[in-house]
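Entry 14. Ran structure prediction on the chain below.
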Amino acid sequence: MRGLMDNTTKGNAMDGFRCIGRIPAAIQEKAASLLTSQRPRRLTHCRADVIDVGLRYRLFRPLKSREFQLMTHERYNTAVSRNRR
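Output, structure tokens:
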């Protein structure tokens, strides 16, 4: 499909994130610009950093991780609930 990248492709090294799943190219560009312009919010229960990229996508950086992961909100909810236990 045009405009989609699978999980084998990464963002540029300067982007500072990697894609988890199939993320549209437009969302990846938006995430790259938000990563440079917006400070992440810190989750209190698992001490992870999050930047919202629209309604359906999140940039998520777990504790002790160097780079953000761009993922859908469904994957984000699973990752956060897994860290909560």
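The helical segments are 25-37, 73-84. Will compare against last week's run tomorrow.
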